[in-house]
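An example makes the point: we let one protein speak, the chain in one-letter code, the fold tokenised, and here it is:
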Amino acid sequence: MTILILTGAGISAESGLGTFRDKDGLWTKYDLNEVATPEGFARNPKHVQTFYNARRANCRGATPNAAHVALGQLVSAREDVILVTQNVDDLHERGGATGVIHMHGELARALCAACDHRWDAPDEMSVDDPCPACGTKATRPDVVWFGEMPYHMERIYDAMAEVDLFVAIGTSGNVYPAAGFVTEAKQNGAETLELNLEPTDARGLFDAGRYGPASQVVPLWVDEVLGR
């Protein structure tokens, strides 16, 4: 049975990394047009770099929780599990998962807006950082901003056509194209499961749902899949 798992910010919330759309989420504290769009970066790149430097520091100080560890065990134990995340943190990797598909990029990576070169980001990025490939001072975080196309979409949709089970964990189900994955999976004949703190607006699209803290719900589900 091939399993495709999509994770969102909710899986990292118990590790101290903020969610986005909850009442106290990041987008209630920041204007997303200023920190998460190409236009915002063009207007005030220093402000954007400062925001992501803080997020990078927050990520470095976070520890994978039991949900990350459980998924790491699942990925290690089975070759037929595909792990896709909307998160830009590295907690899945630090929880033991390999081959994670980061559809929204990674905080730990940098991107040159001039030549598209990518490299490992330093802890602190600056508007004066030159691109190591072309020398242009146009470096930015390698994360997908609003209005930009998520990464690896062809690979994800190819995988979606083959899966037997689609599982959404800790994601709001409000942001496309990821919000459409459950419908895509069902059209391809897959079973669908939602694991979340509470039912989302998309709950009716899933065949089943389990609810509670990710650090409790996810390990229990993984134990069932692995027959433990």
Q: What stands out?
A: The CA atoms of residues 69 and 161 lie 27 Å apart.
